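Marked as duplicate of an earlier ticket. Keeping the data here for the record.
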Amino acid sequence: MAEEKDFLVVNSKTKAYIKGKGLMMSSDALASLNAKVYGLIDAAAERTSKNKRSTVRPHDF
């Protein structure tokens, strides 16, 4: 069974942004976006660790 993670992305803000583009958002799109955000953070954390730092900086993304 897949591990459920907390949502890092705000649903209402994301929907409003997409609606502002004249588009609609499917009910499962937010989960995919959330998974992408976790991936970005994981990659940045790994880069930070490899550089022997404990602070994630903008260039790590």
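See parent ticket for discussion. Helices lie at 11-20, 29-50.
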